[in-house]
Structure formats: structure tokens, C-alpha cells
Design a protein that fits this description.
Blueprint (H helix, E strand, L loop, with lengths): L16 H15 L2 H8 L3 E4 L2 E5 L7 H16 L5 E4 L6 H9 L3 E3 L5 H6 L5 E4 L6 H10 L2 E4 L3 H15 L3 E5 L5 H9 L8 E4 L2 H11 L5 H7 L10 H4 L3 E5 L5 H18 L7 E3 L5 H13 L6 E5 L5 H11 L4 E4 L10 E6 L4 E6 L7 E7 L5 H14 L7
Parallel strand pairs: 2-15, 3-4, 3-5, 5-6, 7-8, 7-9, 9-10, 11-12, 11-15
Antiparallel strand pairs: 1-2, 13-14
């Protein structure tokens, strides 16, 4: 199908008062937690018997996630008789995505194959997830004539604005992120601008240091090209395209690490250019909700905890970073949901280093204990409640009704 085959669909307002009232009722029914609200109202602390549960001050669904879920639910109500497809996952939480699928919203790969594109017709509705999607994918869907429901987070779009400006001014975007993550791929596609822009993705400080070594003339362009395969734009030439750079980021990365990436690259540019940093730029584009949850966890860790549970999807970047923060301070277990708490002697949890779910023993303390709990921005309150109640049950506490 060609781009001229179908005129663009008129935008449909999904957020009418009537639709949103019905949506909020349904979303509340699926994801609300009376226990979480009760504990929050009590200052974030619950004491029953020998068990103290302490919640971080900020955790769970952020505004961008809530908006994406609301729009997906609204799409199902506004287009009851049409096929609705979702690019990838609405957010990185398997329980939420299962609920979306249960509503009859059909899965489509984040990067659809030609066969998947062939399934689409101009009568279909296509939901773009909270992470956004690559420019080429969206353009191809528009050419088919699908009705697009775009749930891309506003913080993500703020990053896009910056990298498009970089491309316009022949500044290469250095993106601090995970090259395979949907958001980073979408941002990288925006960094191409109208076709003349370039990008390079760095995952961590080690990769940043390699770029800095190139900027200081210590390694060759061939080394950069070989070491970063799959993480730079087509036609990228370090000799040409690292003369002027601008740092952007996947919005869910650790702020402290992004700031260090910025500083190291700025120092390298200064060293290369005789102290001049005119060829370096950066903008603060860490998601506010991500930072709020990280700050709340640092605050929680000032409490004397025996165990920290981090609840959320294993492929959730912001949840992963919470687990990284926690494990440096206390025994931390990154769990998907309460079902991972098999017994007081057995817990299934995600190992950040092996990148797989493992089982550990003797995780739950005996005697008086303080259990900290936080959750990523894509984790609903009902899953947090289930984890709290499971901990209390395993501890043998009598839970009031």
C-alpha cells in the first residue's frame, strides 16, 4: 500500500467526559488497591505483629502510564466493532499487558514484519505505546490509513524535540540508553531528523569512556564502528559526526549515570578543543516520575530495612534501576508479582547480572522485621497490595479485614 492510497484519518477525541468516566471506573476496578491507599494515608508505614511494611513515598503508575492505559481502554470503547492493534506492549508490565489483551486488543510487533503490515487495513485502529514508536513504522501505518491512537509519553516527546533540533543543526545525538529498548529506538529514529542527522547510543559509563577515548584521539574510528555495531545511524562516521555532539537519554535511565555521561563527554570535548565546549550541548531530559521514584527509594533506604522488594516487569527499565539502587544498600529482590513469593524459604526474582529469573532461599527474616516495598512506574497498585498481603501471610500475621 502506498502513502497516497489513503487520506490521513481525522483525529478522534477519545477523552470525552462520558468515555473517560467509564474508563476510570474500569481502570479503578482493575488496578486500584484499598490497602495501598490505607498505608499511604498512614504515612507509608503498616505495623502488624512483628512485621513492619514501609512503602516508598513515590512508586507505581506515573501520569504517562496512566494516560496510556486510559487511552487504550478508551479506544476499545470508542471503536467497539473495529480491530484494534497494539505496537509491542502498552507498558512494560506483563499483568497490565495481559489485561489489555483480554479486552480484545490484538498484538503487533514493536517492529512489525511485512506480513504483519499486510494484515492491517484502513478500517483498523493502531495504538502507539507509551514509549513511542520509530518514525518509519508510524509512517507506514499512516500510509495504510489506520486510525492511530498515540499514547506516547510527553516526557519522551520532549526528548524527541531536542534530538530533532540537534539534527537540524548538524549536531550528532549521543543517546544514553539501551539500544534495543523501544523508547531508545524511537528516539534514535527522531534523531535522524529529515534524513541528515546522526546518533550514537551508549549504554553505560564504560561505553561512554570509549567514545571519550576516541574524542581524545586515543582510539581509531574503526574501533568505534566495530565496538558499537547496531548502536549508530546509517552512514555514521566518527571522524565527521562526533565533531559536534548533544547528549540525550532514554527517560528512564539513572539520573546520576546520565549526568556522569554528560560530564565525561563534555570534558573530552574540552580536551580535544583546547578547553572550548562550544561543540557540546545537553538538556535535562530524565523523566520527572522516574527521578521522583529514584529519590523516594534513596529516602526509603535511610530506614533500617531488613529486606527490600521491588515490584514490576522484568523488562521495565525504570524498575530495573530501582533494583540496582536497592541492591547496593540492602537485601533486594526484584519480583514480578506476589506469585514470586513462594514461601518464607523460596523466592523467585530477577537477577540483574545474569538477566534471568532465579530462585533464592531463606529470604524472609524470622522475628521482628522491617520490609521495604517500592515499584516501577509501570506497576499497578493491585500488584503491590498482593505482594504486601503475601508477605504478611508468609510471616503468619493476622491481617484485619
Amino acid at each position: 500500500m502506498t502513502a497516497s492510497a489513503h487520506a490521513p484519518k481525522a483525529r478522534v477525541n477519545l477523552r470525552t467526559p462520558d468515555i473517560m468516566a467509564r474508563v476510570h471506573e474500569e481502570v479503578e476496578n482493575h488496578y486500584r488497591s484499598e490497602w495501598v491507599e490505607r498505608i499511604r494515608n498512614a504515612g507509608g508505614r503498616l505495623v502488624i505483629g512483628d512485621t513492619t511494611i514501609v512503602l516508598a513515598k513515590a512508586f507505581g503508575f506515573c501520569y504517562g502510564v496512566e494516560r496510556a492505559i486510559d487511552l487504550a481502554y478508551a479506544a476499545r470503547k470508542v471503536f467497539p466493532d473495529q480491530r484494534i492493534f497494539l505496537l509491542g506492549e502498552i507498558i512494560h508490565n506483563p499483568d497490565v499487558n495481559a489485561q489489555i489483551a483480554a479486552m480484545g486488543i490484538l498484538p503487533l510487533s514493536a517492529r512489525p514484519t511485512d506480513d504483519e503490515f499486510m494484515r492491517l487495513t484502513s478500517n483498523d485502529v493502531l495504538i502507539v505505546p507509551a514509549f513511542g514508536s520509530e518514525v518509519a513504522t508510524v509512517n507506514r501505518i499512516k500510509a495504510i490509513g489506520c486510525q492511530i491512537v498515540d499514547t506516547t509519553c510527553g516526557d519522551v516527546m520532549s526528548v524527541w524535540k531536542r534530538v530533532r533540533q540537534n539534527a537540524k543543526e548538524q549536531v550528532t545525538s549521543i543517546i544514553h540508553g539501551k539500544s534495543g529498548h523501544e523508547e531508545t529506538r524511537a528516539t534514535a529514529s527522531q534523531a535522524m531528523g529529515a534524513g541528515g542527522g546522526h546518533f550514537l547510543v551508549v549504554l553505560n559509563l564504560s561505553e561512554t569512556d570509549r567514545v571519550c577515548e576516541f574524542l581524545r584521539g586515543k582510539i581509531t574510528r574503526e574501533m568505534i564502528l566495530s565496538e558499537f555495531v547496531g548502536s549508530y545511524s546509517d552512514g555514521f562516521d566518527p571522524d565527521l559526526h562526533l565533531k559536534r555532539i548533544g547528549v540525550a537519554n532514554q527517560t528512564t535511565m539513572l539520573r546520576s549515570e546520565t549526568e556522569e555521561v554528560q560530564q565525561r563527554l563534555k570534558n573530552a570535548i574540552a580536551d580535544r578543543d583546547g578547553g572550548d565546549v562550544g561543540n557540546f550541548r545537553f538538556f535535562d531530559t530524565i523523566c520527572g516520575a522516574t527521578q521522583e521514584r529514584q529519590d523516594a527509594l534513596f529516602d526509603l533506604l535511610r530506614t533500617q530495612l531488613d529486606v527490600l522488594l521491588v515490584v514490576g516487569g522484568y523488562n521495565s527499565s525504570n524498575t530495573t534501576h530501582l533494583a540496582e539502587i536497592g541492591e547496593k544498600a540492602v537485601s533486594t529482590y526484584f519480583i514480578r508479582n506476589a506469585q514470586c513469593l513462594e514461601s518464607g524459604e523460596a523466592i523467585r526474582h530477577f537477577d540483574l547480572h545474569q538477566k534471568v529469573e532465579i530462585q533464592s532461599g531463606s529470604w524472609l527474616p524470622v522475628g521482628p522485621a522491617v520490609i521495604g516495598i517500592t515499584a516501577g512506574a509501570s506497576c499497578p497498585n493491585n500488584l503491590i497490595e498482593e505482594a504486601i498481603l503475601r508477605v504478611l501471610a508468609l510471616r503468619g500475621e493476622q491481617v484485619p479485614g
